[in-house]
Give the backbone structure.
Amino acid sequence: MSFVGGVETGGSWCVCAVGSCDGAIVAQERLPTTDPQETLSAIIAFFRRAPRVEVVGVGSFGPVDLDPRSPTWGEVMATPKAGWRNAPVARALQRALDVQVVFETDVGAAALGEQRWGAGQGVGSLAYMTVGTGIGVGLLLGREPWHGISHPEVGHVRVPHDTARDPFPGSCPYHGDCLEGLACGPALAARWGRPAEQLDPDHEAWPLEAAYIAAGLANLVFTLAPERIILGGGVMAAPGLLPRVRRELENLVAGYIQSPALAPGLEQYLVAPALGDDAGVLGAIALACAGSAYAEPRARP
Amino acid sequence: MSFVGGVETGGSWCVCAVGSCDGAIVAQERLPTTDPQETLSAIIAFFRRAPRVEVVGVGSFGPVDLDPRSPTWGEVMATPKAGWRNAPVARALQRALDVQVVFETDVGAAALGEQRWGAGQGVGSLAYMTVGTGIGVGLLLGREPWHGISHPEVGHVRVPHDTARDPFPGSCPYHGDCLEGLACGPALAARWGRPAEQLDPDHEAWPLEAAYIAAGLANLVFTLAPERIILGGGVMAAPGLLPRVRRELENLVAGYIQSPALAPGLEQYLVAPALGDDAGVLGAIALACAGSAYAEPRARP
């Protein structure tokens, strides 16, 4: 049995694991995300103790540089997170561990994990959206997560914003009222004065939240018409929110795009993730199993 | 020298051609689009007179059914154009001419033609947007035009609509103020009381038009980050409009997505089509040359 490694780097926590390509995890550790040097040292120490691997998949918070021809490949780019801008995540692991690193966004990795073992099995074209501290989307349009001149940044699309209904100006430091600025967790907290998890299920926050998320998803459907959309993240844990988003999305899309995939109710089309808390690290393992044109070869001795 | 056929079916005119896969056209004819039976008969008559071909590419106005497993493959779907709903365009040509038909949207075909011979040469991922009677987008994300459960319908995405600045409710019969409803040619005519080509270059119509188109394009960049965008169609012929859209798009995108492709000014990123009036039919010929998983085999004798 041969194993591969997976690392999910998040804003607060990193999860490292070693597992097999049937999705079984044989070693796992959760580390706080502090400064890059300390965090990367802890990740490297985990892999030195764990069963030996030749490939490590990394699903990273972003934005990240995924271009293997770029000198900053495998680094986190314009992040507000202290110390992490241009931290050489992939190359540090590659050099210290003498492994091939497959580097991807956290949502690209999660999409791949859900396609391999979760709610996206058997689905060729898939969008995975997470609504939490930010809004991110991973797109599988073929064998691997889609990148153009950048990875997707669907959180930053603009959607209609009726300032009479919702005078909140949006929380995105770059764009104000982009989708993320209107609908991420911190936007909810700033608009309503308390965190999303303290808002009653009957609060007026939720119809508005569902409308924004559905607007973003409708634009994704009109652009790419993926076979399925997986919608997760901390905010989506709110009771009743997923069915609300389904109804809004159906109102926005159905009748114009005709497909058996959009059967009434959208219960089979817009679904929750199936991998739960392990989605990120399983996605990183899936990356390592899939290999990738975006990986650099192992460092030479 | 072997030839292939191409047909562009448009709302007012159809163009048929026979040409070679280096882009040379050896026979061409322009026919009015009337009812499906008369129009298809005229197309068939053209190919019976023209040099013999084995493959015909068709770029059709839409929405169309592109799923080769569907009983309505090769038909125009929910169109307001009288008589054309469920007209069996592809199968009629296939049967009458004993050819393989490669069936695509008009914009998908045009994208392929521009990639092969025009403004998209050497570009791997490409979006082609036309702003005219409607707004359509063809996406090349790999070897052939992208389809998910449908072809792209990017004209129907929602963009921010400031009703204080622009009280026009939008002209889309399905969505009102979607991108097409706000920015297509008929929307301009309805908003300002005269056709786009009669609006002075200094008219307040143009900054607004540029803002809507750029909002749609920015969402496309945040979603797919294509390597290049080609922007054509009758409305884009307005003097100064393309540079205005470039400026707006740069304001909306640049600084967040970092890529050498987005060099300041966007002159190399957002470009006009290069194939002019022949784009549609050359795209149809490019379809036939490329072949496609979306083609059905030739009808059996």
In short: Chain B touches chain A at residues 63, 77-78, 125, 137, 139, 141-142, 146-161, 174-175, 177, 215, 218-220, 222-227, 252, 255-259, 261-262 (CB under 8 Å).
